[in-house]
Amino acid sequence: MKIKTVFSRLLQPLTIATRNMTHTSSTGSKNFLFRQLFDNTSCTYTYLLGDADNKECILIDPVVEHAKRDFQLVKDLNLNLIYAEDQENLQDRLSTVENALDSLRQNLSILEKQEYLEDKLATVVNALGGLKNNVTLLEDQENLEDRVSTVENALDKDQENLEDRVSTVENALDSLRYNLSVLDNQENLEDRVSTVEIALDSLR
């Protein structure tokens, strides 16, 4: 972003300050220099952009035949030429830089979206983890209910068996009582027979 801003600000005086000999730059320098040099043969301009504070300057669209004139101007202004470039080449480079910046912005946007998606994915994974825990709890509860049901069924069967056994015991007791009653009646009968026999013996 800084590279694009610097170049765009350096090129800005070409359109808005062609008549000024000294221009205040929007980059912060109060001694920003601008010169335009005309070539009668090609009817083109060579532009000199310089900063009187750091003594650096650049030439845009220099003409080879006027190289001596251009360097003399740089010397007269007490500047240090750091760069000279054809405007078309410079524009191509600026275009390349802008394309690279656009690509960088797109990549950053993709990275931001990727981070956003990763956050969303992490949230979904956490939610799935919680869901798995809940499912596990439900499965444990179902297993527990199955075990309780099994125990209840076993108790029901044991109770039925116990009731059957109790019924069998009761029947056995009833049979025993009946047999005892029969024995009691038999003993009473024997006693009566014995009494009768004794009475008969006395009559004889």
TrEMBL record:
Give the protein name, as stated in the record. Uncharacterized protein
Q: Name one GO molecular function term.
A: sulfur dioxygenase activity
Point out the coiled-coil segments of this chain: 87-114, 141-179
Organism annotation: Psylliodes chrysocephalus
Could you state one GO biological process linked to this protein? hydrogen sulfide metabolic process
| Keyword tags | Coiled coil
Q: Which domain of life is it from?
A: Eukaryota
Which Gene3D superfamilies is this protein grouped with? Ribonuclease Z/Hydroxyacylglutathione hydrolase-like
InterPro entries linked to this entry:
Mito_Persulfide_Diox, RibonucZ/Hydroxyglut_hydro
Cellular component terms per the entry's GO annotation: mitochondrion
Task: Keyword check for Coiled coil, yes or no.
Answer: yes
